[in-house]
Amino acid sequence: MTGSDNDPRVTELCSAVSRLRRELAAHPAEFPDRGIAEEELAALNAMALGGAPEIPHLRRSLLLIAGAIGSVSALAQGLSDVRTAVEVFGEPPRR
After folding, report:
1. What is the average pLDDT across 30-45?
2. For residues 51 and 10, is the Cβ–Cβ distance under 8 A?
3. Cβ neighbour number for residue 80 with a 10 Å cutoff
């Protein structure tokens, strides 16, 4: 049983990550940080499938993905969907 069985936030994160991974795989252009985006999307997916993801790790991965593909306009909606799915987990705890 995964966290996605109980938490709709995890289900939405998995869906958004999956969609963006498919869009990235289908995108014909190569760009320098594509590998970083692919690795971080895989990490986000693993965190989501593992249960309740840690907010700081979610946000770090989101930042790396945004930096890697942020200028590729064809992926903007998918990136926005992932960002929205991460944001529903809330802010990281203050130190």
Report:
1. 93
2. yes
3. 13
Q: Which tens digits make up the pLDDT trace of 59-78?
A: 999 999 999 998 889 999 99
pTM of the model: 0.87
Return the residue matching tokens 């869009």.
23
Alpha-carbon distance values, 40 to 6, 35, 63, 95 (Å) = 24, 9, 9, 25
| Interatomic CA distance for residues 84 and 9, integer angstroms | 10
- Tokens 């809330």 -> residue: 90
Which spans in 1-95 are helix H?
Answer: 8-26, 34-49, 55-69, 76-87
In angstroms, the Cα distances linking 81 to 1, 32, 33, 35, 95 are 25, 23, 20, 20, 28
What does the block give as tokens for 68?
């890697």
